[in-house]
């Protein structure tokens, strides 16, 4: 659904009114994504998913549609045509400053063959419309995800995008490729752990001055499933960034916010949200309320939340450790590991308190005699809270206890363990070494998508991978049974990527203690 709300804006001597009334004709019942204004502000390009008029009909993951500003209102969107669209996902990544060239996500087919969602293309404006897209070569470009989103800077020299690639930290990460003076694009580079989490980072864009990145993620504690954050680029390597800051409640909600992009000359930003919608993306605008002179419009795009100073980069962490079955307090040791490490011990009442740096991503291991150790990841980079409550429920070591190894993750469709998985597997190793009588059964689960028999084989192979790791650390193989269940035992529905991620899991159950 398309809905832009905001106040009147002056641009190039003519006025536009972004309002609900002006855009009623553009509303749809489908998922609208990736809104991009043309440089003259008179055309709105956006992607509609699963529309029956898309090239591949309702099965099409997304085609480009166009709405134009005519007589004080936005026109009913029209399909961008078969030149800009094929059966794969299609979206606009940016324009040249004069609007004569449009950058398009993905490569386009030649000789009628389909091309998977890879790379970047461009099309030129001609008297007859947009020319056939030409694929851009980016060395070692890889995206194993079905999702792709990104932005080409206004000067056409920077491509920043999301992908699941060679060195992805978890799900989709953000990458950058740069064009040199000879017109050649560089090998993509991961933006690093300050920006990327073990979850999804999507829909990045750049400020007009290239100093800031905006992106969405579900890997930080925000307002909803996906929130929009911004970070400042600290040098010309494009690998050093300030700690990402949540854009706050003016933008983020309990819904999914994606595709944030700024238009400083208009004091305007566009993005999508599922808040107060039918579950699909609605296009919204944020209007900067400051009456800024034209000279300031090039670098002030939104009145941001306050950036924290050095004295604000600490947080008081407190909580309780209890027995998961009885609720009684547990005396436990809590190890917070990062560049800076801290140790806390819960009291007889199960309470602990700790003052830690909020500029770190912590791996927390909680251990207590007679209980299965617990591992959590803590990322509090948003600086939005001075106090954080984090409670732990430890499972007793007894026959029948089932433990979800939620930090043990694999690359999509493979048995390749992600790097962050080893911390939790080592907790299991420590448990088995400290309790030599324990025997366990490993259980592997996938989500329900795809071929059921293939999922069964994949889950069994993943179980064997985990077992082999435990054995390599000195655990007797006879103490470990293993079985793959495929998608037969979901713990939630599979309606969203978040729920499917929960269903993709490895567990172990204590058979003997």
Give an overview of the whole structure.
Strand 21 (257-263) and strand 22 (268-273) form a beta hairpin. The longest helix has 21 residues, at 452-472. This protein is mostly beta strands and 513 residues long. Strands 3, 4, 5, 6 and 7 form a five-stranded antiparallel sheet that branches. Strands 8, 9, 10, 11 and 12 form a five-stranded antiparallel sheet that branches. It has three helices and 35 strands. It is globular. The model is unreliable at 1-27 and 289-311 (pLDDT under 50). It has three domains: 9-296, Neuraminidase (6 Propeller), CATH 2.120.10; 308-396, Carboxypeptidase-like, regulatory domain (Immunoglobulin-like), CATH 2.60.40; 398-513, 60s Ribosomal Protein L30, Chain: A.
Helix proportion range = under 10%
How many separate structural domains?
3
**Level-2 CATH architecture of the largest domain:** 6 Propeller
CA-CA gap between termini: 56 Å
What is the strand tally?
A: 35
Number of helices: 3
Radius of gyration, Cα only, in angstroms?
Answer: 25 Å
In short:
The protein has 513 residues and is mainly β. Helix content is 8%, strand content 35%. The protein folds into 3 domains: 9-296, Neuraminidase (6 Propeller); 308-396, Sandwich (Immunoglobulin-like); 398-513, 2-Layer Sandwich (60s Ribosomal Protein L30, Chain: A), CATH 3.30.1330.60.
Write the layout of secondary structure elements.
Blueprint: E1 9-11, E2 14-16, E3 31-37, E4 43-49, E5 63-70, E6 73-74, E7 78-79, E8 92-95, E9 101-105, E10 120-126, E11 129-130, E12 134-136, E13 149-152, E14 158-163, E15 173-178, E16 189-190, E17 201-206, E18 212-217, E19 227-232, E20 245-246, E21 257-263, E22 268-273, E23 282-287, E24 314-323, E25 333-337, E26 342-345, E27 351-357, E28 361-367, E29 374-379, E30 387-389, E31 392-394, E32 402-404, H1 421-434, E33 439-445, H2 452-472, E34 480-484, H3 497-503, E35 505-512
Parallel strand pairs: 24-30, 24-31, 33-34
Antiparallel strand pairs: 1-2, 3-4, 4-5, 5-6, 5-7, 8-9, 9-10, 10-11, 10-12, 13-14, 14-15, 15-16, 17-18, 18-19, 19-20, 21-22, 22-23, 24-27, 25-26, 25-28, 28-29, 32-35, 33-35
């Amino acid at each position: 659904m398309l809905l832009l709300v905001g106040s009147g804006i002056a641009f190039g001597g003519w006025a536009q009114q972004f309002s609900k009334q002006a855009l009623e004709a553009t509303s749809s019942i489908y998922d609208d994504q990736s809104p991009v204004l043309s440089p003259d502000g008179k055309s709105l390009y956006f992607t509609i998913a699963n529309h029956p008029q898309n090239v591949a009909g309702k099965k099409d993951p997304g085609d480009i549609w166009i709405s134009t500003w005519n007589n004080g209102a936005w026109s009913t969107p029209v399909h961008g045509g078969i030149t800009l669209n094929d059966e794969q996902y299609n979206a606009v990544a940016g324009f040249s400053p004069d609007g004569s060239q449009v950058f398009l996500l993905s490569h386009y087919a030649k000789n009628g063959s389909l091309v998977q969602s890879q790379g970047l293309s461009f099309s030129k404006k001609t008297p007859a419309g947009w020319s056939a897209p030409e694929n851009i070569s980016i060395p070692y470009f890889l995206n194993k995800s079905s999702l792709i989103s990104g932005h080409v800077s206004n000067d056409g020299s920077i491509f920043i995008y999301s992908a699941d690639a060679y060195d992805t930290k978890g799900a989709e990460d953000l990458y950058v490729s740069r064009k040199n003076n000879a017109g050649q694009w560089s090998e993509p580079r991961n933006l690093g752990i300050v920006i990327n989490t073990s979850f999804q980072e999507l829909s990045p864009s750049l400020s007009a001055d290239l100093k800031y990145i905006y992106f969405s993620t579900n890997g930080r504690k925000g307002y909803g499933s996906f929130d929009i954050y911004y970070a400042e680029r600290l040098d010309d390597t494009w690998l050093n960034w300030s700690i990402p800051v949540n854009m706050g409640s003016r933008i983020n909600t309990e819904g999914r916010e994606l595709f944030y992009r700024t238009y400083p000359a208009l004091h305007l930003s566009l993005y999508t949200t599922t808040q107060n919608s039918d579950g699909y993306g609605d296009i919204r605008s944020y209007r900067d309320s400051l009456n800024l002179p034209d000279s300031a419009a090039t670098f002030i795009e939104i009145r941001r939340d306050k950036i924290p100073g050095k004295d604000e980069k600490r947080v008081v962490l407190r909580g309780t450790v209890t027995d998961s079955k009885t609720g009684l307090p547990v005396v436990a040791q809590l190890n917070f590991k990062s560049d800076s490490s801290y140790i806390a011990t819960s009291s007889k009442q199960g309470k602990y308190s700790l003052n830690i740096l909020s500029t770190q991503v912590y791996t927390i291991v909680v251990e207590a005699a007679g209980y299965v150790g617990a591992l959590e990841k803590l990322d509090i980079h948003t600086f939005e809270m001075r106090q954080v409550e984090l409670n732990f429920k430890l499972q007793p070591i007894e026959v029948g206890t089932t433990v979800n190894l939620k930090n043990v993750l694999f690359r999509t469709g493979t048995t390749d363990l992600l790097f962050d998985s080893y911390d939790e597997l080592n907790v299991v190793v420590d448990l088995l070494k400290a309790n030599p009588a324990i025997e366990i059964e490993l259980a592997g689960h996938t989500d329900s998508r795809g071929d059921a028999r293939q999922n069964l084989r994949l889950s069994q192979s993943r179980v064997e991978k985990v077992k082999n790791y435990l054995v390599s650390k000195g655990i007797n193989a006879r103490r470990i049974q293993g079985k793959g269940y495929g998608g037969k035992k979901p713990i939630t529905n599979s309606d969203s990527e978040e729920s499917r991620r929960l269903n993709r899991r490895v567990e172990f159950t204590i058979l003997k203690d």
